[in-house]
């Protein structure tokens, strides 16, 4: 399977507004790449440019070394000649065709002989586990089954690249979880290069081999999902990736309260303009390990969620949340010790500074 390379790609719709700005992005051969970001960040526009449904205003798009789009070179390869499969947010199944006929449709357009069409369609339906429903019509299927049929239709034509535009957003929570596992299995079995657009950071973290976070048309960070979670490149990525969101504590020119306590803890290192603390990295009660920051906190609320507990705390002058998977014995109004050994540090421009553990690792 080919790698996808975007070099200096930009897209504007007139008036000087850019949906995508100077995007340099490489999707490695066989990767499962998630384009992640809020609505309007340019991720779907990027996917549509890769597919050929939109033409870039500047830059070059190449797949496997073959230039598909280049404003400078005057090259444009139409969508049907790019060897890609695209699944939209809406399933776009033909209601008057059976499941098998829907899956065969792309092969029929390519004039594939009938016996081969049938065998390839059946193989694709088996891969997505809807083979037993191949003689039904879309109206007779659940939303999850319809999504599987849309995937099978794409897989049957054996595209070089699979492009998925928020295909799970119309499903309920249980079906989304099931389809995440299904897409990950399909990727592992097929080895295809996949580009997946989503605004759901949980989908990106659970499925992708690489995540590209975008904001206002610009790439913020490209990294494996857990590396991005552990070492966000800037404040935007830090606050966008993770649920509940990372708390940011600003350290102004005359800091007091929690900011002053954190600054005293990192004394001797680069002075940060802000600190980040993930709720799941904020611990209660147990003795802190050497090198950890700790301080007093007042419990304001305990919110049970089945397998976990979220605790709202007042730490000096700042409200923080802690997430724990062990029962919380403290009650609202109690004073407890909280601590963390995973502080994230950011400079005045919002860029990541080396954290204490990063400095220790290099020493």
UniProtKB/TrEMBL annotation:
Residues 4-241 form the ABC transporter domain. This is ABC transporter ATP-binding protein. InterPro entries: AAA+_ATPase (IPR003593), ABC_transporter-like_ATP-bd (IPR003439), ABC_transporter-like_CS (IPR017871), ABC_transpr_MalK/UgpC-like (IPR047641), Mo/tungstate-bd_C_term_dom (IPR008995), NA-bd_OB-fold (IPR012340), P-loop_NTPase (IPR027417), Transp-assoc_OB_typ2 (IPR013611). PROSITE patterns: ABC_TRANSPORTER_1, ABC_TRANSPORTER_2. Keywords: ATP-binding, Nucleotide-binding, Transport. The lineage of its organism: Bacteria, Bacillati, Actinomycetota, Actinomycetes, Streptosporangiales. Pfam families: ABC_tran (PF00005), TOBE_2 (PF08402). SMART domains: AAA. GO terms for molecular function: ABC-type transporter activity; ATP binding; ATP hydrolysis activity. One of its GO terms (cellular component) is ATP-binding cassette (ABC) transporter complex, substrate-binding subunit-containing. Transmembrane segments: none annotated.
């Amino acid at each position: 399977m080919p790698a996808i390379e975007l070099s200096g790609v930009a897209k504007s719709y007139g008036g000087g507004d850019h949906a995508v700005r100077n995007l340099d992005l490489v999707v490695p051969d066989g990767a499962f790449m998630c384009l992640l970001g809020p609505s309007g960040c340019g991720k779907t526009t990027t996917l549509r440019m890769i597919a050929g449904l939109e033409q870039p205003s500047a830059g070059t798009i190449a797949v496997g070394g073959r230039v598909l789009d280049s404003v400078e070179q005057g090259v444009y390869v139409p969508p049907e000649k790019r060897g890609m499969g695209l699944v939209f947010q809406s399933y776009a199944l033909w209601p008057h065709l059976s499941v098998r006929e829907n899956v065969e449709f792309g092969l029929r357009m390519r004039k594939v002989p009938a016996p081969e069409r049938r065998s390839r369609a059946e193989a694709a339906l088996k891969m997505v586990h809807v083979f037993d429903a191949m003689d039904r019509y879309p109206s007779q299927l659940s939303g999850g089954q319809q999504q599987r049929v849309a995937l099978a239709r794409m897989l049957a034509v054996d595209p070089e690249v699979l492009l998925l535009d928020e295909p799970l957003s119309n499903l309920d929570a249980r079906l989304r979880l099931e389809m995440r596992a299904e897409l990950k299995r399909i990727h592992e079995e097929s080895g295809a290069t996949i580009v997946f657009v989503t605004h759901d950071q949980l989908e990106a973290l659970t499925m992708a081999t690489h995540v590209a976070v975008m904001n206002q048309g610009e790439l913020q960070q490209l990294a494996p999902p857990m590396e991005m979670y552990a070492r966000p490149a800037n404040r935007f990525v830090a606050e966008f990736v993770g649920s509940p969101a990372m708390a940011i504590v600003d350290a102004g020119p005359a800091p007091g309260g929690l900011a002053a306590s954190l600054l005293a803890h990192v004394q001797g290192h680069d002075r940060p303009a802000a600190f980040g603390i993930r709720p799941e990295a904020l611990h209660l009660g147990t003795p802190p390990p050497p090198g950890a920051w700790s301080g007093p906190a007042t419990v304001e609320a305990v919110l049970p969620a089945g397998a976990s507990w979220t605790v709202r705390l007042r730490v000096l002058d700042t409200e923080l949340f802690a997430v724990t998977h062990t029962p919380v014995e403290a009650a609202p109004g109690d004073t407890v010790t909280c601590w963390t050994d995973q502080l994230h540090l950011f400079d005045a421009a919002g860029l990541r500074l080396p954290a204490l553990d990063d400095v220790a690792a290099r020493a």
